[in-house]
Amino acid sequence: xxxxxxxxxxxxxxxxxxxxxxxxxxxxxxxxxxxxxxxxxxxxxxxxxxxxxxxxxxxxxxxxxxxxxxxxxxxxxxxxxxxxxxxxxxxxxxxxxxxxxxxxxxxxxxxxxxxxxxxxxxxxxxxxxxxxxxxxxxxxxxxxxxxxxxxxxxxxxxxxxxxxxxxxxxxxxxxxxxxxxxxxxxxxxxxxxxxxxxxxxxxxx
Length: 205
What we know:
- This protein is mainly β.
- 14% of the residues lie in helices and 39% in strands.
- The chain contains 4 helices and 15 strands.
- It has helices at residues 25-32, 84-90, 134-140, 180-185, and strands at 11-17, 20-22, 40-43, 50-59, 64-72, 79-81, 95-97, 108-111, 116-119, 123-126, 129-132, 147-152, 159-168, 175-179, 193-196.
- A hairpin with a 6-residue loop joins strand 12 and strand 13 (159-168).
- The protein is globular, with a radius of gyration of 18 Å.
């Protein structure tokens, strides 16, 4: 298939979000020790967020995944973000959810350098989404929680993604986030951009 013709004004940078965890300070201390503070490894594209040098092991009913990156800063609730392939490997019936919507989600065991914790919930497959600042949202005619479609033009693996949630905040840098399964399906490479499809824009009502 050939993606629709592109316009520079409709282009959105693409970022690949590998499996990771967001932890509360209490959980950080349980996994890494009393009064522990995350050690920043590198800044992320979204302001004030960073990948920590610290990692955990995720354990599910049928498998485990080691060296899963902790992202900072600490959050108010623990959240584990994995791909569908990860969920199958772990044996966890993870649901596709928008970040922060954790009600009725499954849990997992997390193992850190100094301890472990059984989460009763918080494991999700992140709903593909666009972080968007208000200026770009105004330019695109979009609002927070709108759902759109985007086209990826790649080497022989062009792909259109529907059901893309838009999250608008003045704290965001505009960027499409896909998980590793989605990125591999579209052969995403560094510098890839997505085209916001007019046909995918929300209709009145």
